[in-house]
UniProtKB/TrEMBL annotation:
Entry keyword annotation includes rRNA processing: yes
Source organism (scientific name): Pseudofulvimonas gallinarii
GO biological process: methylation; rRNA processing
Domain RlmM ferredoxin-like residue range list: 9-72
Domain Ribosomal RNA large subunit methyltransferase M THUMP-like: 86-165
Keyword Methyltransferase: yes
InterPro entries (UniProt xref): RlmM_FDX, RlmM_THUMP-like, RNA_MeTrfase_FtsJ_dom, rRNA_MeTrfase_M, SAM-dependent_MTases_sf
Keywords on record: Cytoplasm, Methyltransferase, rRNA processing, S-adenosyl-L-methionine, Transferase
Classification via Pfam families: FtsJ, RlmM_FDX, RLMM_N
Protein name, per record: 23S rRNA (Cytidine2498-2'-O)-methyltransferase
């Protein structure tokens, strides 16, 4: 018989291996709003929890306000010992209890997902198979509403165990696991191209992309070889100065939008302000943050998008230190967005836009 355990926790799905950093971040964010509890994070599970103390509640942050979380959910029930022949009935009971507690039906839609771990990926077919039947069952039970403003989340952690949670529709991601659906990049000169392509797609909204990424704009790519990030920019019809002593792929140069400058990326500067500075150099992250901050301080670029390669230890602390160094070096108000993207590995991606006055 299924066991339904009410709870108050914040669940974050993340990249496997970064559970500790994700948990630290959840605890920091909870502390800012007076949350009291503890972190539960186990390496390799691709998820972390902040569990509220017995008398407390955990307020889930918007996923876009986090660095290491791909998905953020406010958990209200844990289901275990699910009957594999009928997983839906206990879910309906738990959701109905939550609706009764809230005094209304706040959910507009339901999303079934699992962590991006070895075990979690094995649950993906089950999640897809249950999506339609659960959606229909919730509709028949009157537990989904067209006027709802929240998304109901079902996160499977085993074939017989799941967590039920929720978030406002604009504060969690609509894709399972928070993983964006991006087109395959045919012809990219390096794997790193996918990182910039994802960053441009998810770290700005449509209005910002239209305003900040226009054909004919000028960009600088520091440490460009073999040309992955430069190639992505040319697909947006941006003119690129590719700074690297190494060679660029021939088809990148063939676009006619690229000027290859053989120089040290830490020393070279443009004669005039460019629209974009991008950088994916394998270098100490604090040194990269200082470099980018200098460009912004001098007005050498209007905005910057770059990666920070993280050390093996104290990765969360190092990320925060780099962001602080960037702010201090730039010396001007910045709209800073920092994410560990799906295509990032031991790194995070930072978008820095001087605040509009």
């Amino acid at each position: 018989m299924a066991i339904i355990e009410p709870t108050h926790a914040v669940l974050a799905l993340c990249r496997a291996g970064f559970e500790g950093e994700c948990g630290q971040e959840l605890a920091d964010l909870a502390g800012r709003t007076g949350g009291v509890g503890y972190v539960r994070a186990r390496n390799g599970t691709a998820m972390a929890e902040f569990v509220a103390s017995e008398d407390g509640k955990a307020s889930a942050p918007a996923v876009e306000s986090t660095i290491f979380a791909r998905q953020v959910v406010s958990v209200f029930a844990r289901l275990t010992a699910l009957d594999v022949g009928d997983r839906i009935s206990p879910m309906l009971a738990a959701v109905r209890a939550r609706a009764d507690e809230a005094g209304r039906v706040p959910w507009r839609e339901v999303l079934i997902e699992s962590p991006d771990s070895d075990g979690g990926r094995e649950l993906a077919p089950l999640c897809r198979r249950l999506a339609g039947p659960l959606d229909q069952a919730l509709l028949r039970a009157g537990l989904l509403s067209r006027t709802g403003t929240r998304r109901l989340h079902v996160v499977f952690t085993a074939t017989d165990a799941a967590m039920l949670g929720e978030h406002t529709s604009d504060a969690s991601r609509p894709a399972a696991g928070g993983i964006p659906r991006l087109r395959r990049l045919s012809g990219a000169p390096s794997r790193s191209a996918a990182k910039l392509d994802e960053a441009l797609a998810v770290m700005m909204d449509a209005d910002e992309r239209q305003r900040l990424l226009q054909p004919g704009m000028r960009a600088v790519d520091l440490g460009a070889a073999p040309g992955g990030w430069t190639w992505v920019l040319t697909r947006h019809h941006v003119q690129v100065s590719a700074i690297d002593n190494g060679p660029l792929a021939a088809h990148v140069m063939d676009t006619g939008l690229v000027t290859h400058v053989r120089a040290d990326g830490f020393r070279w500067r443009p004669a005039k302000t460019v629209d974009w500075l991008v950088c994916d150099m394998v270098e100490q992250p604090i040194r990269v943050a200082t470099l980018i901050g200098g460009w912004l301080a001098d007005g050498a670029c209007r905005q910057a998008l770059f990666n920070l390669k993280l050390p093996m230890k104290k990765r969360y602390a190092e990320t925060l230190a780099c962001l602080e160094r960037l702010r201090d070096t730039a010396g001007l108000p910045l709209d800073l967005r920092c994410r560990q993207l799906y295509h990032d590995r031991e790194e995070v991606t930072v978008l820095a836009i001087p605040a509009r006055r």
